[in-house]
Amino acid sequence: MDTQVAIEFQDLSFTYPDGKQALHDLSLQAAAGDTIGLVGPNGAGKTTLFLCLAGILAPQKGTIRVAGLDPRNAADRKRLPAHVGIIFQNSDDQLFSSTIADDVAFGPLNLGLPAEEVRRRVAEALGRVGLTGFDERVPFHLSGGEKRRAAIAGVLAMRPEILLLDEPSMFLDPRGRRELIRLLNELTVTKVIASHDLEMILDSCRRVAVLDQGKLVATGAADEVLRDSALMEAHGLEVPFRLRR
To answer: Residue 69's CB: how many other CB atoms inside 10 A?
Structure first.
């Protein structure tokens, strides 16, 4: 695999045990440092694709490489957390410790890093998301936006090369949303952002992939794809306000 390719999958398919096929022969490539918006209606397969890329689900067909690793290979899958971070739609799924600092430290500790390095990473990650001084705060006492930033800090502390973000702007007020967009644009890692917030996608992503019923129906420059009113309507989406003629 080309070292400049961060994510690559070809003819990727996944079927759940109940027989529902969630992904149908998907093929896509993301270069290192690229930011791709993954858009589509509810049930399109966006979260399933993320779970396959993160090694949580194993595709039954196709080839897949993430940071040069095959998530279906047991040895490679163990190495994935050091390279790939996933931000789930519900931040409560990622916050489980008694303090923010403990939550952010969880990943680096599991990498076996020295205590001083873990402390350094915790402070750095909290600073990146604007939560300096929140070390001893209880996660479940935070606002929705603060929880989202704490979850992102926990992933950034692992210093991944690739970030997968599932509906990152959900539950955020306008200020929190602006801060999130600023943070995402400052991060130079490869990012795939799944969201219904198409205005945020425009602000954050150079490329877009449209997914519907498990099929990749369009890819291209974000402004060109999202401006296509016929395409948007056919797949349960709307053209972002700023692109409407």
So the answer is: 20
Helix (H, G, I), strand (E, B), or coil: what is residue 47?
helix
Q: Is the pTM above the cut of 0.85?
A: yes
Q: Which residues pair with 218 in a beta bridge?
A: 210
The residues, ordered by sequence, that sit 6+ positions from 244 with a Cβ below 8 Å of its Cβ are none
Helix (H, G, I), strand (E, B) or coil at 94: coil
The string of pLDDT tens digits covering residues 136-184 is 988 888 887 888 888 899 999 999 999 999 998 887 888 888 888 998 9
Write the DSSP string, 113-172.
Answer: --HHHHHHHHHHHHHHTT-TT-TTS-GGGS-HHHHHHHHHHHHHTT--SEEEEESTTTT-
> DSSP character for 197?
-
Kindly state the helix (H) or strand (E) to which residue 78 belongs, with its residue range. Answer: helix 74-79
Fold of the domain spanning 1-81+194-245: Rossmann fold (3.40.50)
The domain segmentation of the chain, as residue ranges, is 1-81+194-245
Each residue's pLDDT tens digit, 37-92: 999 999 999 999 999 999 999 999 999 999 999 999 999 998 998 899 998 877 77
Let me know if 93 is exposed, middle or buried by CB neighbors in 10 A (0-12, 13-18, 19+): exposed
Asked if residues 211 and 42 have their Cβ atoms less than 8 Å apart, the reply is no
Q: Compute the distance between CA of residue 118 and CA of residue 121 in angstroms, rounded to an integer.
A: 5
